[in-house]
């Protein structure tokens, strides 16, 4: 026989339990059995706990009323007097405070059971009684584990039931009650889809409109034909899902801090960007440029996926392309890239492909169509866009000592002088020539090394009390290491343009999300559910959004930014923009009583 004495896994060897439960089993045999002994714990305690779990979940409610009636006839005090607790090592001395507390719990349960007008299921009453017996045993000095096992033995149950008793008792101590059973408490009703005639009508409609069905058209069919046919008067239309802006994560400290920084930077850029006015945003108004400033143009980037019944991945930087009358064999005609993603197809979109798209498509096309202007490339704040170059200064990948497996990093500037991160070719030790110096040598050259400084302290964050906890944190806190930029930003700025990254969880600031929504709406309406059809539909869907719509999307995102600058939250900003759609700028008076206006609006809606 395999024995294990690991209590965490509830393996209790028979030999170990036999002496300790022998007297309890004798008492249990004297009582009239009310249910069959399903676990046979007296002869085989290695049965699967799954049977006990099933019994506790399913059979307990079916037999609870009978068990409760027997428990009420028995007096536990008479039976537990026969249990010898003085020789048990797990029994503690009687504590007056604990005894008073358990007596209070026992009286509370007794009061609950005496109330006749409340709706108590047999299972709930049986659990209360079991917990009451458990508290009585604790009051007499038994340990919790032993007390729960005794209660389970008295009911001819196994170890799982003992664990349940302890769980119910803990809930009663914390909340003054135990979990109620929800069996039979669910709503009993039927669906009109159970009607075969309704099923046939819906199936027939779906077959007839296989290639042109939309959510709105299906809801109209249900409202106008199905519901009236079964005598349901539909006074109001079926509600459509109204999607609000995503606000989860807006209150995170790092997000709040970055949002403030982002709004300050984009505000400086927006003062140098053109604005569009008119009913269809057809009139371009350029800002007054001084001191040799150039016009800034916002170029936003994002990626999305089209599916054959909604895939094909599309990465696009706005509608940045050459006009049909411009011919230039040296550059691509348009900036967007459409690929068929997958291991056996075009692969997966990554940062290397994005950089190639920017260098060979986006920037050449922009400089051709917007000569003398500066592009402000805006990206979402994803981890792939934050990727650093292989030779970027990064203390995380450096060893404390020279050589070894660590990357060769670029030269840097410290105190106005160039500092190389590798040993020179004429270094005395030939084995270290051209090898990385490591953190110790770099810090020594900067005069920052101290005796007893170890390589890494093991903490991700630097300690405020001890900023010199390790060489990695000391070096990472240096200005040149802190100012390293993502490779995406380095490439674009080297070509003379600007980069900005949107705050996390702020989809509403990137107006390309609205462009995707309009494109996918077209794709769904013109989809024939084939791969060949998708290849034809996706380019048309991306070109289907009118230019004035794109400019209005940009205006809406700019209004969100304006609201955030004035201190509004995401929900408040959403309300303001719905209330004042036609305004080019949000009026200032709206910010005075914004919360009261939102509450009033919700009250009027309900």
UniProtKB/TrEMBL annotation:
One of its GO terms (molecular function) is nucleic acid binding. Transmembrane segments: none annotated. It comes from the Eukaryota. Gene3D superfamilies: Ribonuclease H-like superfamily/Ribonuclease H. Residues 31-54 are annotated as: Disordered. This is DDE-1 domain-containing protein. It comes from Rhizophagus clarus.
